[in-house]
Amino acid sequence: MVTDIHSEDTALIGERQAAARALMARPLLTERTHPAELSLVRSHAEWLTQRFHRVLGYRLTVAEDHARLVKRGPGAPAPLTRPTGAPFTPRTHTYLALTLAVLVEDTGPLGVRELADRVREAAYEAGVDADPARGLGERRAFCAALEFLAGLGALTEEEGRIADHRADALADARLVPHTRVVRAVAAHPPRAADDPDSFLAAASVVDPDGDNQGEIALRRLLAETAVVLREDLPDRQRDRLAAHQWRAAAALGNLLGCDVEVRAEGVALVLPDEADGFPSDDPVGQAALALVRHLSGRLHPGRPVTSVVVPDRELDAALAVFCGADAPERAEWSRTAGPEVPDPDRMRALVLDLLTGLGLLRGAPGAWSLAAAAARYGSETDERVPRIQDNDHDSRTQSARTSGSGQEEDSPDPRRDLDRVASVLQAVANEKVSATSGDPGDDGDG
Fold first, then answer.
1. Rounded Cα gap, residues 277 and 168, in angstroms
2. How many H-runs (helices) and E-runs (strands) does the chain carry?
3. Distance (Å, whole) CA 429 – CA 435
4. What is the mean pLDDT of each run of 10 residues along the chain (446 residues)?
5. C-alpha angle with apex 180: 178 to 186, nearest 5 degrees?
6. Residues contacting 100, CB < 8 A, separation 6+
7. Of the residues 237, 326, 347, 386, which has the fewest C-beta atoms closer than 10 A?
8. Where are the beta strands (DSSP E) in 27-133?
9. Among 429, 286, 307, which Cα is nearest to 360's?
10. Which residues does residue 6 pair with via DSSP β-bridges, in sequence order?
11. Three-state SS annotation for 146-212
């Protein structure tokens, strides 16, 4: 039988890129939670380690029972949440940190009540007022931290369940900590000399001084952000994007197997398995999709812009239709065997969180705007949403102000815009020529 070498190479590249995407989506993979993905990462550990370092400046550690991708750069990580979707409270974060401080030492199997005693002792030594046995609220926060670690594969429930202790203080589930995984949970432990401001500043440098570091920061931004709008970038990074966008696209495409959409308003990465994210089939995803389609249709400005203002009344009216108690879709969702349908207020909050996290809806109450990228999901005005009359201006033609502009210009000089466009087109042309010779950062497959 003759083996097709080209097919083998294609399969190998596909496996490497699938492993890279798995790490980008879940920077901590363990054999207990994602055995298939971890096996794939272990098979291509050397290639992945070198490429992540070269393209994004990320450090990858691969061990027998886990793999940890240590990220840096712009973009806040997604907030930690409970299985219900509720975000961690400050108290839950406190218990998570204290539990990690206890479990980084090899404790061996232990009961949840013994762990609670050790957490209380660690809190006392650190001068923190925390005691899991103090009451129901404290115990719930403590158990939420333990369930999060169990979900990561850092803890295993050997006998009983953590939820039993949350309901009954006398219940004593037996836990098995996996020390090496526990030590990998916190990617950037603070140093003794760090204060909160300096710690956060060191973790996110948006616009480095050096060109090489600046280009790596730009690649990180493209890889971690659903849509990167040019108007949101500092001047120096905006110029770097114009000059190096095709080289960045080639490097990220080789690493992640993604396509890149380059438009006048910005750049977006499209991953092969993006359908697993948005739009999703769950009620929140479907309501969010209906909302962006409706807003794209009703607020279409009729001319090229990077974003368009969304009046609060328009947004509230649409949310009432798609998320309200009387929404016809709610009855259909309730009849299916899918996930639980959140109540109207919770649904509204989840839809807004989803769309702002994706960068499709931007701003805050009183200053909402819809990004131009939202139109990629279609524009279908839902006539159930009443039209909102606005006597001050027609929102269909009101574009959002460019964030990089320090002042309004009633009569901008078109020659300056043409000069800017000409310089960008020249940079793009030069970059396309250099891209045909290959990305020097991708030479060699170590």
1. 37
2. 16, 12
3. 10
4. 58 93 94 95 96 94 95 70 80 94 90 95 94 94 94 93 93 94 87 72 70 87 84 87 90 91 82 65 85 89 76 92 82 64 85 86 89 82 78 46 44 48 53 47 44
5. 105
6. 149, 182, 185, 186
7. 326
8. 28-30, 59-62, 66-70, 110-111
9. 307
10. none
11. HHHHHHHCCEEEEECCHHHHHHCCCCCCEEEECHHHHHHHCCCCCCCCCCHHHHHHHHCCCCCCCHH
- Provide the β-strand partners of residue 28: 68
Quote the tokens at residue 97.
């940190």
Provide the Cα torsion 55, 58, 153, 25; round to 10°: -40
Residue with tokens 């409706």: 294
Q: How far apart are CA 327 and CA 287, in angstroms?
A: 10
Q: What is the value of pTM for the model shown?
A: 0.74
- pLDDT at position 422, please? 53
Amino acid at 163: A
SS3 159: strand
The alpha carbon torsion through 437, 443, 444, 446 (nearest 10 deg) reads -160
Gap between the Cα atoms of 229 and 440, Å rounded = 26
Per the structure block, which two tokens stand in for 240?
């770097």
Structure tokens, 161: 């369940």
Closest CA relative to residue 242, chosen from 255, 250, 233: 233
